[in-house]
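Moderator note: this is an archived Q&A kept for reference. The question asked for a predicted structure of one protein chain; the sequence and the answer are reproduced below.
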Amino acid sequence: MVSGLHIQYYFVCHRKLWLYAKNIQLEEGHERVQTGKILHERAYKNSEEKELAVDNIKIDAIDGEYVREVKVTSKMTKADKWQLLFYLYELKKRGLNKKGLISYTKEKRTEEVVLTEKDEEELDKIKESIQEIMEQSYPPGVIHSPICTKCAYYDFCYAEEGEE
């Protein structure tokens, strides 16, 4: 079952998505992941509807008509937006129509996200693509992107390159 994290990883790195889907999860103890966990613990202290989990979705908070997500930086804006659109779509399928807000704490700004029918069609295609990636026998190749150096899977992906 596709989750919000699968959507996030789909836009960041297909290899990371595949590894995560195969339960090769190296995030525990990684500095950036710990920073995110602390941020989520401290965000929305006054919200009564915080850290809501429904089936395959885990929402930071619901504040009136908005589903809220908090991120440290906007470096993964596209992935963040599609993750939130996925939550909005899943809630809509359960009869809840909401808008979304993504707050980037480092830049101190918030973006509104509104789900459209076109987004819903695209999400259906994305979910199919994610299923195909997860069903592959071997992981997709390393993307060799600057974002790799800060990834929890860096040592796994680049282990052979460090050996002589």
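Archived answer notes: The chain has one domain: 4-158.
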